Amino acid sequence: MGRFQYFLEYYFFMTFNDLGLSAELLRAVSDQGYSQPTPIQAKAIPVVLEGRDILAGAQTGTGKTAGFTLPLLQRLSANKPSQKRVVRALVLTPTRELAAQVSDSIKAYGKHLPLRSAVIFGGVSIRPQINILRQGIDILVATPGRLLDHVSQKTLDLSQVEILVLDEADRMLDMGFIHDIRKVLALLPKQRQNLLFSATFSREIKQLADGLLNSPTLIEVARRNTTAERVSQVVHQVDKKRKRELLSFLIGSQNWQQVLVFTRTKHGANRLAGQLAKDGLRSAAIHGNKSQGARTKALADFKQGKVRVLVATDIAARGLDIDQLPHVVNYELPNVPEDYVHRIGRTGRAGNEGQAVSLVSIDEQKLLRDIERLLKCEVPKVVIEGYQPDPSIVAEPAQNGRQKPAGGRGGNCRNSGQARPKTGRNTNGNKARRGNNSARRKPQASRVAPSA
Length: 452
Ligand code: AMP
Fold this sequence. Notes:
This protein is α/β, with parallel strands linked by helices. It has helices at 3-13, 23-32, 39-49, 64-78, 96-109, 127-135, 144-152, 169-174, 178-187, 203-212, 224-227, 243-253, 266-278, 292-303, 314-317, 337-344, 365-375; strands at residues 54-57, 89-92, 117-120, 139-142, 163-166, 193-198, 217-220, 231-237, 259-262, 283-286, 309-312, 327-330, 354-360, 382-383, 425-426.
């Protein structure tokens, strides 16, 4: 089949009816307003329905949750549960927010089926979770730590699990959950279906997959940074001490109404949210030190437009599903280049246009180069008038990114320059043109952070 036909097949003609889903699930999908499966759904659903293991390379934003949830619900509803309800499907996620989102999706897609699901994660009282588990559930979504707490308190039986989903497995490993994952695996029956989702495929992920999956079908959809021609990217070089001022200026002058801003530290997130609030911008911070209640409230306020700027650390923001988020700002570049891809994946979701802006100080040039090596392209650089970096400032040693070869499936920065504000000038001093990728600044040797 030619590429064009292949394209037609997936994007124009394929419907949910073609995937072998039951009437109840088709009804739920239509209730959600989805007209066509996304590529990951088109590829994963038939394979999971056949009961096969999958190793899927897909990020949040591709529709992967429905990709595993719909066939999982169908398989569970086809097999009659034993007399007493026990957990038959287990979904492990790295963060509380992602767990809550996956759980919401399971409830939405399974609303016409007689299956019960629950979500458990840390940071909230364990008591109500024990009560829910006691009533018997079919599908459990959990973060690894709290799951093991329940196992040690003997409030959870995992001996009947038929389907295991590891969602965002790369992030689970990044967060140090590998030992917990291995403990959980040891509690599950040997005979089961395994679905592993990961945005990146490091050696550790491959090792985990080798030990876990049984002749898996490999499913890949384009990475967010390749599909996301809809995400335009731009770097504004600026002195560190002027970043906050520039951010306020961009939000105000561009009239951004919903902005997700990333900082590297929890303290930095708090401080920035406070400063922005002083600038008159309704802001909230979301990070691991906040109580679950505060995190949920901040997210809800942001989604409802009560909060205009949500400042987040990487871990807190992981998996956040905020529809049609138009702007993501990297207030500080992440130490790990892959996190840049995850961050900008918050915007341009499910087919919407998005804009990813990075404020980069001279200390962060090494981090920027690591990111560009991963993306296999240069992100256009635009200096905002009045915020030109002071050439007399020398780089302080910056924390460098993970020193590993930037291999993997690279992306491209096509369609980038669109992020540039109207007032922007490129670094050649010319008026910035849309899509002008040639406006790149070669960092001068004296201004580059020393490589570690
Ligand atoms: P996910 O990658 O699972 O986090 O999904 C990202 C977003 O895409 C969510 O807001 C979903 O509700 C939405 N979505 C999932 N499947 C579809 C579809 N087939 N059509 C339109 N939107 C979808």
